[in-house]
Design brief:
By secondary structure, this protein is an alpha/beta fold. The chain has 2 domains: 4-113 and 182-303, P-loop containing nucleotide triphosphate hydrolases (Rossmann fold, 3-Layer(aba) Sandwich); 120-180, Orthogonal Bundle (Histone, subunit A), CATH 1.10.20. Helix content is 53%, strand content 9%. The chain has a 6-stranded parallel sheet with strand order 3-2-4-1-5-6, sandwiched between helices. Strand 2 (31-33), helix 2 and strand 3 form a beta-alpha-beta unit. Helix 5 (120-133) crosses helix 6 (135-145). 37% of the residues are buried.
């Protein structure tokens, strides 16, 4: 039985998808997506899902599997992902995990445990504050008591922010303390890799992708999702790219402003992803100057597993 797992992690627009597919084709294996939004149906352009021809080339898991209204969390992901890893490993295939969701990657490599109970009264208080003061209010509250945890989250990930506040309120310790001090032996070896761009180049990649998303029909995608009866309040739409376009469709901002905000918020998201992943010294980073370098890097990685 194969006991190795390849993990391709890193910020958005760094070339993870292309690298993962290239490696998977070389090793004749399958890809496990560790992206908290690509798992939803209908959210394609705004989540930069692999193209259909790419999905045809290599089998992907956790892509287009859930209805947009369905709630999904990292604990469920952890339970489901190891069933797939075990199946692939039993057939002597090395799974290739690809994604930028730090918590999902951590769930695979280290595990996520819920050692701390919930405090329903305090949670209801936080929900009340969110409703009346917004996500930013809760995020600033977390920054004041647990800045390290806050640096690994975004304000719109309000459920994670609330959980982090709840853990701190109950224990006086950061939620990251419990993540770092868990001991789970999965029986697998995880080999983690990432692509390292110059910050300015990565930001240019982000801006080019956003322009491509608009040209590829992001506005129409959002219109279609809403026309299908989905509420703008569902968690899957509380995502960079979708929430800004929704604001445009509701005449709150212009399309030009929506595009500006998507670019800005994506850059901020990428910065937080980098902060998260660079804390993990087990990730081997490859310097990259252009997408043409990806095939060469894929060859180097795949060679280690043949």
């Amino acid at each position: 039985m194969e006991r190795r797992v390849i993990v391709i992690a890193g910020p958005t627009c760094s070339g993870k998808t292309r690298l993962g597919i290239n490696i998977a084709k070389r090793l004749n294996t399958e890809i496990i997506s560790a992206d908290s939004r690509q798992i939803y149906q209908h959210l394609s352009v705004g989540t930069a899902k692999p193209l259909q021809e790419e999905l045809n080339e290599v089998k992907h898991h956790f892509i287009d599997e859930l209805d947009p209204s369905e709630n999904y969390n990292v604990s469920r992901f952890e339970n489901e992902v190891f069933k797939i890893i075990a199946t692939l490993s039993a057939h002597y295939k090395i799974p290739v995990v690809v994604g930028g969701s730090g918590l999902y990657i951590k769930a695979i490599v280290d595990g996520i445990i819920d050692e701390v109970d919930t405090d329903e009264d305090y949670r209801q208080q936080l929900l009340y504050e969110r409703k009346n003061f917004g996500n930013e209010y809760l995020y600033e509250k977390l920054q004041s008591v647990d800045p390290e945890a806050a640096s690994a989250m975004l304000p719109q990930n309000w459920k994670r922010v609330i959980r982090a506040l709840e853990v701190y309120n109950l224990t006086g310790k950061s939620i990251l303390h419990f993540h770092k001090n868990q001991n789970r032996e999965s029986g697998y070896e995880f080999h983690q890799y990432g692509l390292k761009w110059e910050r300015e180049v990565l930001y240019k990649n982000i801006e080019a992708r956003v322009d491509e998303m608009i040209a590829s029909g992001l506005v129409n995608e959002v219109k279609k999702i809403l026309s299908m009866g989905y509420s703008k309040e569902i968690n899957s739409l509380n995502t960079v790219g979708y929430k800004e376009i929704i604001a445009y469709l509701e005449n709150e901002i212009t399309l030009e402003r929506a595009v500006e905000l998507i670019k800005r918020n994506t850059r901020r998201f990428a910065k937080r992803q980098l902060t998260w992943f660079r804390r993990d010294e087990r990730i081997k980073w490859f310097d990259i100057n252009s997408v043409s370098d990806i095939e060469k890097i894929a060859g180097k990685i795949a060679l280690k597993f043949t």
